[in-house]
Design a protein that fits this description.
alpha+beta, Spore Coat Polysaccharide Biosynthesis Protein SpsA, Chain A
Length: about 450
């Protein structure tokens, strides 16, 4: 059995903590038993593995989220990378083809597709596992998981089942009705559409070939940008006649706004903040290195990060996306597979960044055509490679990297580095990844020379 987790998002609904790189599923807002924090992605992955340790997990996402996923879930996590965003049907097809062609998963294997960001308890993933087992034993080609509604929401789609049994045939789908219509549907036994699908790998690959002309995974990658943007519901579910829905009665929350997120947070304050005794139902998240004081705040969300500061009524916070789009700010914080970077200051021709580099990790060997860089090692030790030359560095050292020079930093211990970028044009796009040709060649030549000496050296009598 394999689970495909769909990870997308523009990073605007939980601004200023979320951004184009750090979507809501990567915000570490959930306190764990050891007083640390985990993100939604970490929580979901942990829950799946605790319920079924042997189930395969593959995350379908874009290139911009890969580093963050590896940072939070480790380098060994399976990731199917979309060349561009094409909605859920193309993403699921690409992930399914990846499982078959690259991972060697058999066509008879059952697959479940789930969002990466619901707030649920372990019994939710027990239901997902049960859904996949049902696919192996029943004649249905496609099965869904439907959540019993707790209120007539206008934000979710609805599944209308034929009856109120634990598993029922699907009568019809309704896309985000108004409140009055939602109340009527709930009276008829309607379920929230949680975006969870299950099928055999053979089913989805056959279905994909009916709708997309491609030969294999690599051919699909080549054609991916030209594919129609369409959801799995529209492309498959609503046209399938042989379909069942399994009823789920447990807790399920889509924490897509600050109002909803605050309902599942275990504490009212995260970070350096103080609320007076007149504050009511107010949550504060402060990632800045300065104190934040709230006086007499009621039903409010206050969130502060290097990207900006939000002060909002909780209910109103659900409608801020178009306003965040107008801001158009660059991402000031991001998690990478090697650590994190935080933008500290931006001037006309310079930018100052704090880099945290994890032990035994390094940046990719790269160069910049438009800027030079100055690194100051604040703590830790490791080595730098500049144009193929390796040099050990430690706390207090400063390294200058000229425009166009090839470079990287490798951390032998955890390192904190202040990087000053200087140039008339400073952009994240100004980066060319390279192979360590000169450095590796030197290593190979040195090893070859040593081997020759050992091989041909005449033993002493």
């Amino acid at each position: 059995m394999n689970i495909i987790l769909l990870s997308g998002g523009s990073g605007q609904r939980l601004w200023p903590l979320s951004n184009s790189i750090r979507s809501k599923q990567f915000l570490k807002l959930f306190k764990t038993g050891n007083d640390s924090y985990e993100s939604m992605a970490q929580r979901v992955y942990r829950q799946i593995k605790s319920v079924s340790p042997d189930v395969g997990v593959t995350i379908a996402t874009g290139e911009d989220q890969v580093s963050t996923i590896k940072n939070q879930l480790g380098d060994d996590i399976d990731i199917c990378i979309e060349p561009c965003r094409r909605d859920t049907f193309p993403a699921i097809v690409l992930a399914a083809t990846y499982l078959h062609d690259i991972k060697g998963v058999g066509l008879s294997e059952s697959i479940a597709v789930c969002p990466v960001d619901p707030y649920v308890h372990d019994d939710y993933y027990k239901a997902v596992i049960s859904l996949m087992k049902s696919i192996e034993t029943v004649s249905k080609k496609l099965m869904l998981l439907g959540v019993e509604p707790t209120y007539p929401s206008e934000k979710y789609g609805y599944i209308i089942p034929e009856n109120d049994h634990s598993i029922s045939s699907v009568k019809k789908f309704v896309e985000k009705p108004d409140r009055i219509s939602a109340e009527k549907y709930i009276e008829q036994g309607a379920l929230w559409n949680a975006g969870v699908f299950s099928f055999s790998l053979e089913y989805i690959i056959e279905k994909s070939h009916e709708l997309i002309e491609y030969s294999d995974y690599y051919d699909l990658l080549e054609k991916y940008e030209s594919l129609e943007k369409i959801s799995f519901d529209y492309a498959v579910s609503e046209k399938e006649t042989n379909i069942d829905v399994m009823r789920y009665k447990g807790e399920w929350r889509d924490v897509g706004t600050w109002n909803m997120m605050s309902e599942v947070m275990s504490e009212n304050v995260k970070g350096n903040a103080l609320l007076d005794d007149k504050c009511e139902n107010t949550h504060v998240i402060n990632e800045l290195g300065i104190p934040l004081l709230c006086m007499g705040c009621k039903n409010m969300i206050v969130a502060a990060s290097n990207d900006g500061i939000l002060v909002s009524d909780k209910e109103t916070s659900g409608y801020m996306k178009p306003y965040v789009e107008k801001l158009g700010n660059m991402a000031m914080f991001a998690e990478k597979s090697w650590g994190t970077f935080t933008v500290l200051d931006v001037q006309l021709n310079s930018m100052t960044v704090n880099i945290y580099l994890k032990e035994n990790h390094s940046m990719k060997y790269h160069s910049h055509e438009q800027r030079s860089e100055i690194w100051t090692i604040v703590s830790g030790n490791g080595y730098v490679v500049v144009d193929g030359e390796k040099k050990l560095v430690k706390t207090g050292d400063t390294i200058s990297v000229s425009k166009g020079a090839k470079h990287l930093i490798h951390a032998q211990t955890d390192m904190n580095i202040i990087e000053i970028q200087i140039g008339e044009s400073i952009s994240v796009k100004d980066k060319t990844a390279l192979i360590l040709q000169n450095y590796l060649l030197a290593k190979i030549m040195k090893f070859t020379a040593l081997f020759a000496v050992l091989l041909f050296q005449t033993p002493k009598e």
